[in-house]
Design brief:
Blueprint (H helix, E strand, L loop, with lengths): L1 H14 L2 E2 L16 E2 L4 E11 L6 H8 L6 E4 L2 H12 L3 E12 L2 E10 L2 E8 L3 H11 L9 H17 L6 E8 L6 E9 L5 E8 L6 H6 L9 E2 L1 H11 L5 H5 L7 H11 E2 L10 H17 L6 E9 L4 E9 L5 E8 L6 H8 L9 H8 L9 H6 L7 E10 L2 E9 L5 E8 L6 H5 L12 H14 L8 E7 L4 E7 L7 E8 L5 E12 L19 E10 L3 E10 L8 E14 L11 E16 L6 E15 L11 E15 L10 E10 L13 H8 L6 E14 L2 E13 L12 E4 L5 H5 L3 E4 L30 E16 L2 E15 L11 E12 L3 E10 L11 E8 L5
Parallel strand pairs: 3-6, 7-9, 10-14, 15-17, 18-20, 32-33
Antiparallel strand pairs: 1-2, 3-4, 5-6, 8-9, 11-12, 13-14, 16-17, 19-20, 21-22, 22-23, 23-24, 24-25, 25-26, 26-27, 27-28, 28-29, 29-30, 30-31, 31-34, 34-35, 35-36, 36-37, 37-38
Length: 894
């Protein structure tokens, strides 16, 4: 009974607890305290609301934001007051919020919003770092003039700056933010942000524990962004060991604690010789977490499905270096045993197993299993494509581990085939300048067709090859409707300008300064040419190409060209119609004292008309194009082509046929795909025509004015991704120039000139085809100035009749931004050029290697610079070709 009385007494105290709200500086205004019963709130009517503590904010607006208004009936204590405080805090413009009761009269209450106004930001200054870093930080922190300066704003600013420097490799950056009143503006403040970024911290060593099956060298290579910094300390270490102890064998110099093994030697070399000069060695926590996942992915791909990282430690070796220690538990290695298919009615177990490509006893690789089921980036067919290419969009497959016994795993493939999905609607978004019909005619996904994943991929490639849209942002979105067995496809595009203006000047050797002015409109609209309302700033949107180019060096060299292409002649089929017209004049023989006096000239006028068409056999990537070209060469005292005469008119009528196949995914920075092209140029065999005896002399003179030849060119390119965005590119080019009449000889026109960047010769030499070979001077690998088998041939015709060239490149993108695509490359190259068929040897090549960079800007096209080293000596040279710099413009085919 006594205990019960005590409990009742204490409960009464709790229930009769009283509180006071806002009595501190307002007690002088009232005669007695306001007693509040928290266990039994009382209802009051708000009679008045006042605001104190603010000068620059509107009182009525603040009262409205609080959610309280005169006449409201609220309970005190209650949620209305609490919500008012929360509502005002949400505005983030106040430094303190209180709700005070100033007076109570009966059931009416008088409230005061006691607020503390925060100053606004007038300006801020960043010190302690260079101007470039200041500009980067301004974008990073995003401070805006007029923002309310709160502790939260300052803290967020500090965190943003700290994050920036951590990602740059400065985890110990010291950031001091001081708030100073702005005396020029009332209720405004300045922020002085002083930064001491400290020293850059690098990863010194990454060590592992528990890695019984893979050495540390292998595991480190799987971590893409967390790398040890480059260093070579082997000589210092060996020198130290020689004076520390006396090794009895060479092996003891490396491992004095025991016998030298392959693993110990590899580990020793990796510890003291680190040549990863091109990898980042900064320690970034986010990237480190990703790298740990990559480490586990590697173990899983090798069959260690239970592998885990037990612990990892990151600690400072010294002020500038971090060590990372990772302890792994590899677990057991597993293998595939039985693979069981269920739910498959369309394809047999044998067909599915053949496409899957996994045999009993193969290492249990989850990544490989996922690729073979869903999407294989190598281009091999997978289970998903087997179904979705035939319309089974709603197909689903779930691999389930049904039995784990010892080191073997049985997998059950549970398939739900679903029904065939038909495309209902196809929409195109983002083509703000390109007309809808230009995009729609490239689509392989049309309403009423069966859904096909391969058609989605094919359409993506076609849209990228147009060059009108950013390839990185082409996104097919599809919205399936299982109830109606239909799917809507939305193509989301982002326009990019690929029109180009060329305004340049350069030194053209014997031609002096050469100026170039060119305009290429690659999404032109001829039908809107005379409708000024469609000029933006030129008529655009129909996918046609118009190019005008003028190049000149005074009267000594002049070139004019015009070309137009309609890729869909008639608008119904992909028949590419083209017209090209050009006129070039080269004058020679000017004296030193009178540069304007010329004694000879060569003029070339050409007109060609072409028609090309996509074909569906053997597949949709093939294209056949034909063109007919007529050219006239006028020689006036021009002895530089090696002809028997220096004057005359030579005409050429040529039929050109090209069969090509291209499956590249991106014309600017290609990651995958291939391209192959076989071109044949044929003139009529005029010398074989049977003319009558009566007109023999007259007709023979006429025949000699016609050029005759047959020319064959083969170009092959192949692209494949290696790791991430690193791309391997292999290329081979071959050319052959033949004659119908051996007695007449091979034509002096259309010969091959090799060497250098392939740029200078293309601009200034006519009647010849220029082949680049980096590492050697422009046109240096060209007979007869060079002959692969003998000394210079003297009066032989300039240029080769057969060539071969091979190239291998590794490319890596720096930026894929459509405004400026930049990538670097390393390459090796080999080629040769012969002036007769007897000397042709595809293995007698001139080799080179080097590095380079490319930048593509829509307004200027592709611009490149290469440094190459020529390893071989050309006949007539004293030594090897050595280092050469090359500048290129455009995406060169050869």
């Amino acid at each position: 009974m006594r205990k019960l009385l005590i409990i009742v007494f204490l409960t009464g105290i709790v229930l009769s607890t009283y509180g006071q709200i806002g009595l501190d500086r307002f007690q002088k205004k009232q005669s007695k305290k306001i007693e509040l019963n928290y266990s039994d709130p009382k209802e009051y009517e708000i009679a008045e609301i006042t605001v104190s503590g603010v000068e620059y904010l509107d009182n009525n607006a603040l009262i409205s934001l609080s959610g309280l208004k005169v006449g409201d009936k609220i309970k005190i204590p209650g949620e209305a007051i609490s919500n008012a405080v929360k509502n005002l805090w949400k505005q983030r413009i106040l430094g303190d919020v209180k709700v005070n009761i100033t007076k109570v009269q009966g059931d009416k209450v008088y409230l005061e919003l006691a607020l503390k106004e925060q100053p606004r930001l007038s300006t801020y200054q960043i010190t302690g770092v260079n101007k470039t870093t200041q500009e980067n930080l301004q974008d990073e922190i995003g401070l805006i003039r007029g923002s309310v300066v709160t502790d939260v704003l300052k803290k967020n600013t500090e965190l943003s700056i700290r994050k920036y420097f951590v990602e740059k490799g400065f985890p110990k950056a010291d950031i001091d933010i001081k708030q100073i009143a702005d005396t020029a503006l009332s209720n405004y403040a300045k922020l002085n942000i002083d930064i001491d970024k400290g020293v850059k911290v690098r990863v010194h060593e990454i060590s592992f524990e528990g890695n019984d099956n893979y050495n540390a060298v292998k595991l480190r290579s799987k971590m893409k962004k967390t790398n040890e910094y480059a260093r070579v300390s082997i000589f210092k270490d060996l020198f130290s060991r020689l004076f520390t102890f006396k090794p009895k064998t060479i092996g003891d110099a490396f491992t004095p604690e025991g016998s030298l093994t392959k693993d110990k030697f590899t580990e020793y070399m990796n510890e003291h010789v680190k040549l990863n000069f091109f990898n980042s060695t900064k320690f970034i926590p986010k990237e480190y977490r990703n790298d740990k996942n990559l480490l586990l992915d590697f173990y899983n791909s090798k069959g260690y499905r239970d592998a885990e990282i037990i612990s990892d430690t990151v600690y400072y070796k010294d002020d500038r270096n971090i060590n990372v220690h990772i302890k792994v538990d590899e677990g057991k290695r597993y293998y595939f045993r039985d693979i069981i298919w269920t739910g498959n009615y369309l394809y047999t177990d044998e067909t599915l197993s053949a496409v899957l490509g996994i045999e009993k006893g193969d290492v249990y690789d989850k990544e490989k299993l996922s690729k073979r089921l869903n999407f294989d980036p190598t281009g091999s067919r997978d289970i998903n494509s087997l179904y979705t290419d035939n319309g089974y969009l709603f197909f689903n497959i779930q691999p389930v581990e049904v039995l784990v016994e010892g080191d073997s795993i049985d997998i059950e493939m549970r398939i739900m085939e679903g029904g065939i999905a038909t495309i209902d609607q196809v929409l195109v978004k983002g083509n703000n300048q390109t007309h809808d019909h230009v995009v729609l005619r490239e689509l392989s996904t049309r309403p009423g067709d069966k859904f096909s994943r391969s058609n989605l991929i094919k359409t993506n490639q076609r849209l990228a090859q147009l060059g009108f849209f950013d390839p990185e942002q082409i996104e097919p979105q599809y919205f399936p409707d299982p109830e109606n067995s239909t799917v809507d496809i939305h193509w989301v595009l982002a326009e990019q300008s690929n029109d180009q203006i060329e305004l340049s000047g350069g030194w053209g050797g014997i031609y002096g300064f050469v100026g170039t002015l060119g305009l290429s409109l690659n999404n032109f609209s001829a039908k809107n040419l005379f409708d000024l309302s469609k000029w933006k700033p030129v008529p655009r949107g129909d996918g046609q190409r118009l190019s005008i180019r003028v190049q000149a060096s005074g009267r000594q060299y002049q070139s004019y060209s015009f070309s137009f292409q309609e890729p869909w002649l008639g608008g119904r089929n992909p028949n590419a119609f083209s017209v090209n017209l050009s006129h070039t004049v080269v004058r020679s023989g000017a004296s030193f004292f009178d540069p304007t006096s010329f004694t000879g000239s060569l003029k070339l006028t050409s007109l060609s008309v072409g028609l090309g068409r996509r074909v569906r056999w053997p597949d949709d990537f093939f294209q056949v194009s034909n063109s007919l070209a007529f050219s006239v060469y006028n020689l006036d005292n021009y002895p530089y082509l090696g002809l028997s005469v220096d004057d005359g008119k030579f005409k050429s009528l040529t039929l050109n046929t090209t069969i090509s196949r291209s499956s590249i995914d991106n014309p600017i920075y290609t990651r995958s795909g291939s391209s192959i092209s076989l071109s044949v140029a044929l003139t009529p065999p005029f010398s074989s025509f049977d003319f009558s005896e009566d007109a023999e002399v007259e007709e023979t003179d006429e025949v000699n004015e016609w050029i005759e030849y047959h020319k064959w060119d083969l170009d092959i390119s192949y692209f494949t991704p290696i790791v991430g965005d690193l791309v391997f590119h292999a290329k081979a080019n071959f050319g052959f120039l033949g004659t119908y009449n051996i007695d007449k000889g091979i034509s002096p026109f259309e010969r091959y000139v090799m060497g250098g960047s392939g740029l200078a010769g293309t601009n200034f030499q006519i009647g010849q085809e220029i082949i680049a070979l980096r590492g050697y001077e422009d046109n240096a690998v060209t007979p007869p100035a060079y002959s692969g088998s003998a000394s210079p041939a003297g009066d032989e015709i300039y240029g080769g009749v057969v060539f071969s060239k091979y190239t291998m490149e590794l490319r890596y993108p720096i930026s894929t931004n459509p405004g400026a695509t930049i990538y670097v490359l390393g390459f090796s190259e080999a080629g040769n050029n012969w002036n007769n068929y007897q000397d042709f040897n595809p293995f007698n090549l001139y080799r080179s290697a080097g590095v380079g960079a490319r930048i593509f800007m829509p307004a200027f096209g592709l611009i490149g610079i290469d440094w190459a080293y020529g390893f071989d000596r050309l006949p007539g040279q004293l030594g090897t070709s050595g280092p050469q710099f090359h500048f290129t413009i455009g995406n060169q085919l050869r």
